[in-house]
Recover the amino acids of this structure.
């Protein structure tokens, strides 16, 4: 059934070479069937003529037919979206930017590989209203986190299978300090690369290092020092769980 | 001697590569990939047959394993108490889990009537956008008594009926009753 369907589809919407070979096969088949039941192949040929004479309909049907591949790519490999809001400033959408950041979302790492790392910027479904929010993973299971208000407890140990997510801008974010540790199953994709604007194009979620090439006192140097300080502050509030060691 | 053999091998490869069936192979491969993607998307978003196994839903489902029809095209707001839902386990993001809905958002639920995980008088209000789930075999089930209310964002589908074993095909009824 699959092969027949693909042959019909391929015949209808293929490029020139394949249409030529399919039509030659069809003409041969028509010759054989002229004396017998020719209705089905006649319908096929007339529908192919109909579509090939109307290029707009042709490309629209082509797009429709190849839609599953496109949906699969956006579902399991990655997609590109723009970020809204200020909860991840200044990493994303800083105040001095005229445009909303456009970022590459990597779904493969999360859906297929299930790789989560501290410091990753992820998009997750909020437990409060199931809407997609962008936050940073601060802590994974077993870690102890010093929380910020309005969380009721001063320290939280992350349960197994959960993560603690926070926005980089602590005053304008609805994050784990409001709804607590989130199950890893809510995390949908990892933000891996900023595509726009061009002056901040680059990978996301990497550990920040002090830039030795920037001249001391320049705006770049000050920005990288500020990023480093913020990262140190974030990491200072987490006590990473000791990983189990098998060697005595 | 060897160069003649190689030359013959090379010409035979080139001739095969020029055959129309072989030249269409990449396009046919792409069409096959497209079809498989369509199947995968159907299984993810419309309905699929799933293999369920485990003792936590005895007697509704056998522990040894059976095949059920899982509907994925569900409205999370239209779920009812007594429905069998599948969701990603809050303890392990790689494991799908199936349990029964006991409490909808806003309900006051008795945490553990058996008294194992909490005193049987303890009650909890199910927060907004969460579900309280419980296995039918409460003696051997890790459910909301262990990991608390489950966010609706984890819910993947609803189990509608058992299709295998064929002798035991049933539509799972909702078993929610009011006690006056």
């Amino acid at each position: 059934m699959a092969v027949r369907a693909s042959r019909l589809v391929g015949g209808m919407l293929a490029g020139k070479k394949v249409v030529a070979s399919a039509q030659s096969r069809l003409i041969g088949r028509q010759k054989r069937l002229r004396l017998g039941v020719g209705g089905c192949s006649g319908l096929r040929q007339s529908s192919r003529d109909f579509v090939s004479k109307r290029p707009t309909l042709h490309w629209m049907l082509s797009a429709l037919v190849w839609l599953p591949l496109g949906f699969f790519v956006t579902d399991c490999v990655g997609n590109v979206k723009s970020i809204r809001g200020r909860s991840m400033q200044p990493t994303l959408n800083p105040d001095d930017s005229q445009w909303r950041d456009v970022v590459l979302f990597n779904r493969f790492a999360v859906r297929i590989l299930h790789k989560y790392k501290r410091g990753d910027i992820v998009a997750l479904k909020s437990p409060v209203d199931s809407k997609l929010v962008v936050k940073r993973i601060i802590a994974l299971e077993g870690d102890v986190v010093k929380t910020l208000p309005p969380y009721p407890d001063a320290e939280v140990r992350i349960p197994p299978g959960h993560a603690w997510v926070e926005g980089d801008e602590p005053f304008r974010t609805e994050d784990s300090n409001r709804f607590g540790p989130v199950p890893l199953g809510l995390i949908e994709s990892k933000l891996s690369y900023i595509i726009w604007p061009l002056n901040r194009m680059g990978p996301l979620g990497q550990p920040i290092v002090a830039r030795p090439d920037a001249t001391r006192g320049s705006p770049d140097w000050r920005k990288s020092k500020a990023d480093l300080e913020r990262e140190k502050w974030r990491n200072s509030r987490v006590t990473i769980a000791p990983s189990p060691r098998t060697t005595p | 001697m060897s160069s003649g053999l190689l030359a013959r091998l090379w010409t035979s490869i080139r001739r095969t590569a020029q055959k129309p069936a072989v030249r269409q192979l990449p396009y046919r491969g792409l069409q096959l990939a497209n079809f498989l993607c369509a199947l995968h998307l159907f299984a993810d978003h419309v309905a699929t047959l799933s293999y369920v196994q485990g003792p936590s839903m005895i007697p509704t489902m056998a522990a040894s394993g059976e095949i059920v029809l899982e509907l994925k095209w569900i409205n999370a707001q239209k779920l009812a108490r007594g429905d069998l839902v599948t969701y990603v386990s809050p303890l392990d993001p790689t494991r799908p889990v199936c349990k029964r809905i006991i409490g909808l958002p806003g309900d006051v639920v008795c945490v553990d009537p058996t008294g194992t995980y909490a005193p049987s008088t303890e009650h909890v209000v199910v927060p907004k956008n969460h579900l309280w789930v419980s296995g039918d075999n409460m003696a051997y089930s890790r459910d909301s008594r262990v990991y608390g209310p489950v966010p609706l964002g984890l819910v993947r589908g609803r189990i509608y009926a058992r299709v295998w074993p064929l002798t035991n095909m049933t539509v799972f009824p909702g078993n929610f009753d009011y006690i006056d």
